[in-house]
Design brief:
Layout lengths: L5 E2 L4 E3 L6 H7 L3 H6 L8 H18 L2 E7 L6 E8 L4 E6 L8 H17 L5 E7 L3 H10 L2 E3 L5 E3 L5 E10 L11 H4 L3
Antiparallel strand pairs: 1-2, 2-3, 3-4, 4-5, 6-9, 7-9, 8-9
This protein binds coenzyme A.
């Protein structure tokens, strides 16, 4: 697939490039990434170069994973990253620590979800989300985007060392399931 740019009221989503390597390297030193993501740990500049120079373009071309840089303007500095993996159409994201708490990730994730379910990925009828149990910030983003929590038979997520951890799972459909918001009450409270 050819890379697709998306726009929201405050953000531009486009293909990340090698010019983003310094910021990717800096953001990926975050201890939250060690705890919640499968990005390499410790994270070296060579990891960013391999990711941006090879993995991202190859995965757009094959459709295996579609990855967008999140920016505040065209050609602006990288704020965060969001992707959809082909397997199960799973959404993943991270935001640079300095840019959190402004609703940017919820805005970006909504745009990606609507693009995927609106025909961006042919045949995609649902989008999956998983997070290590306890990742409340990620769960709040998923709730804001209209995901509904589900109880799968295997409620885990893979870790970077090949193990698994207990995880929360959710699914987004279009239109949004009327029960979606309420499904988060046990972990995020209500209404
Ligand atoms: C998850 C993450 C992307 C959220 O980014 P963000 O820019 O703060 O997201 P938003 O500003 O859109 O905030 C969304 C919601 O999370 C809440 N939130 C933000 N940081 C939070 C925190 N540390 N704890 C609890 N809630 C938090 C916001 O208040 C908001 O809640 P609301 O919609 O109910 O008002 C960011 O915290 C991050 O990069 N974490 C590390 C990587 C990660 O865990 N990725 C997800 C893996 S599944």
């Amino acid at each position: 697939m050819r890379p697709v740019d998306l726009r929201t009221p405050r953000l531009v989503l486009d293909e990340p490039t090698l010019a983003d390597a310094d910021l990717v390297t800096a953001y990926c030193q975050d201890p939250l990434f060690e705890r919640y993501l499968t990005t390499p740990w410790p994270y070296a500049r060579a990891d960013a170069e391999a990711f941006l120079g090879t993995y991202v373009p190859d995965s757009w071309a094959s459709g295996a994973e579609l990855t967008w840089a999140i920016r505040a303007s065209e050609g602006g500095a990288l704020l965060g990253m969001i992707s959809v993996r082909e397997a199960q159409h799973e959404l993943g994201y991270w935001m640079g620590a300095a840019h959190r708490g402004s609703g940017f990730m919820s805005e970006a994730a909504l745009a990606v979800a609507e693009w995927v379910l609106g025909g961006g990925i042919r045949g995609a009828r649902s989008l999956m989300w998983r997070a290590v149990e306890g990742n409340l910030a990620s769960a709040r983003v998923a709730r804001a985007v209209g995901f509904r929590r589900i109880e799968p038979t295997d409620p885990t997520v893979p870790t970077r060392d090949g193990g698994t951890l207990p995880a929360w799972h959710a699914v987004r459909t279009s239109p949004v399931d009327p029960e979606a918001h309420a499904s988060w009450a046990s972990i995020l409270g209500g209404p």
